[in-house]
Each structure stands twice: as C-alpha cells, then as structure tokens.
C-alpha cells in the first residue's frame, strides 16, 4: 500500500505535468500516475509550442510560475514571432521544438520537484466516499489514497485508432487505451461524449529534396517564451514549405471509400481548425493546392513531421499521395498518419476551478474537457493543480477572469458554453485581447503567481523592474518636448505630416508609421535614459512604445472590462430555483438550471440567455 498523498495526478501529458509540478511547488505531496514513465510530456502531434493565441497562453503559464515556457525554451530549435505585420495584440510567439529534448526537460523538472513522486501503472477507477474522491485504483490492484485527484487522461479514455479500414484500441500509436474510468464516471452521473483528432505521417528527412521547397527561417533576432533567465537561440534549424497539387488530391480521393471519415467508422467531431487533408480537399474542392509545412523533429534526428497532411487514409494511399508533393518524390515513411477517437466529458460539469460539480475534490484538465492543443491542456493542468492544492489546504479557489488572461477566457468558455468539437484558443475568442498581449503576461500575472507561491522572488523582482523602468521612460517622453525642425527631419523621412509647433515626444509615437527608435533619435536625454533602462530589462523600450502607441485603446478596453467585471461580482445562490422566476424565458430557465452559473457575469455569457433575462435576475437579487 502506497502512502496517502495530498494530490494524485492521473496522466503524464502536458496537463498532468503542469498540474503535478504546480501542486508540488506549492507544497502538496503529489503522486503522478502514468502508464509509461518513458512518455512523460510526449509531444504526441506536432513538435512545436505556441502560435496564434497559444503563444500568449504559454507566456501566461510562465508568468504564473508554470513550466511550459521554460521547457519550450530549453528544447527549442527555432523561434518565430507570428503576426508581426499586425498590431501587438496579435503578436504570437511560437517555437519549433526537439521532441525528445522537450520530454526530457519536463521529466527532469518534475524529478527536481521534491514533492512529486511517480507511479507507473494504469488508473482504472476512483475511490469514492459519499460525494468525495479519496483516491484511485490501478490496474495491478493497488489502491492509493489522496485528498484530491486531477484526471488528465488526454486521448487515452477508451481510445480507438483508425487507419484506413483498420481499427484498434490505443491512446496513441504503440500505446494502449485506458479503460474503466469512463464507465465509473458515467455511473456516478457524469455525461460523456466522443471526440476525434488526428496526426500526419512522419517521414525520413534524408529522402526529401529541400531544393524544391521554400525555406522558412526563424527570426533574425529570436526572442523566447520564459521571462526567466533561459537563453534565446543562437542558431536555429529551418523549416520548409511545399504544396499539394491536383495529382495529390486525385490520389487521395481514390482512398475515400476506405476512409473512416467518409465510410461512417468515425462518428465523432474533429477539430474544425485543424482538418485532415482528406477533409480539406473535400470541403475546399475549388482549391488546387494546400500548404504543407515540413518540420524537423529535433536537432539530431532525421525524422520529419508533415504538418498539414493529417490523415487516416490507408497507409499505401498516404505514401502514393505524399510522393506526388514537390520534394517528396522519394519520401520514405517512418509511420503513417492516423485518427483517434476518445472519450471526453462536457466541461459544463465543472466549476471555474476545474473541480467537478458532482464529486468533491475531483478535477478534470486537458483533452478530457474537450480541448485540443498542448497549450490549452497545459494551462488547464496548471489551474487544476493550483486549485487542488488550495482545496486540500482549505484556501480560497484561484480563478482568472476573462480580462486577466487567455487562460481565464478558455476556462470560462468551457464551463459556460461547453463544446461539442475540440476547443482551440484564438485571439478572436478574447474580447479584451488588447489587454491580454503576449508582451505583458508578466505584468498581468507574475505578482499573482508570486502571491500564490508559484513564481519566485527573482521573477517578481524582474517584473517590478520592468514596470518601474517602463513608467520612468513613459514619464520622460511625456514631459520632454521636441523642437519643430528636429522632429520634421524624421517625420518627412517617414512620410508623416510635419508639425508646426513644439510637441511632446510621446505624442509622436501615436502616429502609425513612427517608431520608438525614431522618437528616441530626436532626444539625447530620453535616448540615454532608454539605453540605461534597457540594460536592466530588455523589454522596457518595446513595452513603453506599445503602452504609449495604443494608450487610448487600452484605456477604453480597461473601462469596458471594469463594467463587465462588476457583473462577475454579483453572486447567484447555488440553490436558486429558476423555475420560480416567471419573467425568465423558458430557454433561460432550462439553460441556467442545468449550468447553475456562479455569478451574473457567467449567466450573461450562457448561450440563449438574453439581456432581459439578466435584468430579471438582477431585480430578483436586489440589484
């Protein structure tokens, strides 16, 4: 019999790693139960972290004191800041990663966490007493007691792999599915459903002709995810871009009658924004080509990830179709692509803490909640780990609002709206995205992370230095005037309207084609200050520019957020009987009775609940 733990985390993927690491760092005794110790933090699909909106999430995890940003930096082989041509609210960091190094760095981080123990075994059930979870049961017959349990089962719950007309059980290629948990949770009263995801083939990079592809370089001056002392890349590996063609599409169509997507073998919903290649050529029949990203799996391996070619067609069709793509004529396949169906639990069954409403002390995080993506899983794991620790120690729950973090948007979307297809984060999902930029995640969240006990003193000191320096440089630019002649030399070069009288330096930064470098070039005093401050913190100049250039938009969004946040402060009694409120619409009564929102703000975001329904609730609550 193993010792009793404060928190048991089931699953060693991205959600499980963050959950175990966070609860352990905060002081809880943690047991990480995984079916295979050698696949902890496995990058099951693409070898990359971040991207549009996802990069913001990784930055937020790091700012709070989580591990994904550090691990991503330590295993990166390429860094790119996406959407640089757009405004800073859209800038999104992304790394290409060494798959093996990523998993190794995560495992080492967990092993350095003295409060985290490991147990290699399959979790087959829960130990329930009354309406509380008190431990887990494993396949080899071991019962392990705990005060809280975090389930992060990924795609393993009754996982079924589809490859052409073949089907076999598995949670990932070469790994068995997890059984028992779904059935037990259903008996306890949980609703469940099925979802689908897929992965493309991997090929031998030595068999590709890169001369026929477009080389995709990393950034010239690469940044990084973590606000800690991880080092930016000094050299990078290139990725490549090629395209499918009509011949590729015709070959793929030959296998459609044997495709599980089209012959009825797969009945569940897949990720809308990451469709399979057969889905793409079926849905977008007017397009004669689709982009293929050729991504190396690491520094020292020849294995290549064929991004954009996700498929579950028969393997012989995959090979023939792929060899019609420019540069892939002699391609050798390491392993075919496949689709996988798995159980998930609609997340409307959760509280904002990710604790289930039915079973006390039981938390769900990651793909079990219907999300897709490493980053979405990791941030849920972090929040579940924090809240499991706080629950065990009788502390108040930790919840992030929609105006505080993309993490807050994601969790609120899940538990308020639910999802019937794999949920993926986009910048468009965040109504306060000007506030939730990747560059200010530390300013927004590191003080919070430090107060929780996750972010260390050095992280707090770094962000305080950044905030102080930015404020100092802003004040200098807002106070110092610039002579007409000095300013107009630069303004004319930038095709910007000249000035006729002296203005403050800060006013010129608001012009769209004027940069911080231009403005600092007009002033010896402010330039000297900027150089001095930027040696203390490399981000001060860029942070100052963003805050001054977008000040009006930022202030407006903060005002809107404050007004909306007032609704989130109005609590709704858990036992409120909505059927007694005669003026509520029938749809609102049904939706609110099922969901039981905790606040008026949450109720206002429920699909089918109208502004007039919210007015009725406010009147009833005396507001």
Features:
single chain, 623 residues, alpha+beta, FAD/NAD(P)-binding domain, Elongation Factor Tu (Ef-tu), domain 3, Arc Repressor Mutant, subunit A, 4 domains, 7-stranded mixed beta sheet, 6-stranded antiparallel beta sheet, 21 helices
Helices and strands, with pairings:
Layout lengths: L4 E6 L3 H12 L4 E5 L13 E3 L3 H11 L3 H7 L1 E7 L9 E6 L1 H14 L3 E5 L2 E7 L2 E7 L4 E9 L8 E4 L2 E4 L11 H7 L5 E7 L2 E3 L9 E3 L22 E5 L2 H8 L23 H7 L7 E6 L6 E5 L7 H8 L10 E3 L2 E7 L17 E3 L9 H19 L13 H12 L23 H12 L4 H23 L1 E2 L1 H10 L9 E2 H5 L6 H5 L3 H13 L3 H10 L1 H18 L17 H10 L4 H5 L6 H10 L3
Parallel strand pairs: 1-2, 1-9, 2-6, 9-20
Antiparallel strand pairs: 3-5, 4-5, 7-8, 8-9, 10-11, 10-19, 12-19, 13-17, 13-18, 14-15, 15-16, 16-17, 21-22
Helix pairs in contact: 1-9, 2-9, 2-11, 3-4, 6-8, 11-12, 12-16, 12-17
| Share of residues in strands | 15-25%
Q: Count up the domains.
A: 4
Any guess at the CATH architecture of the largest domain? 3-Layer(bba) Sandwich
Fold-level CATH name of the largest domain: FAD/NAD(P)-binding domain
Largest sheet: 7 strands, mixed
The helical percent reads: 25-40%
Q: Mean pLDDT across all residues, rounded?
A: 94
Task: Indicate the CATH class of the largest domain.
Answer: Alpha Beta
Q: What is the CATH superfamily classification of the largest domain? A: FAD/NAD(P)-binding domain
Q: Spans with pLDDT under 50 lasting ≥5 residues? A: none
Kindly name the structural category.
alpha+beta
- Report the end-to-end length measured between terminal Cα atoms: 54 Å
Strand count? 22
What is the rounded Rg? 26 Å
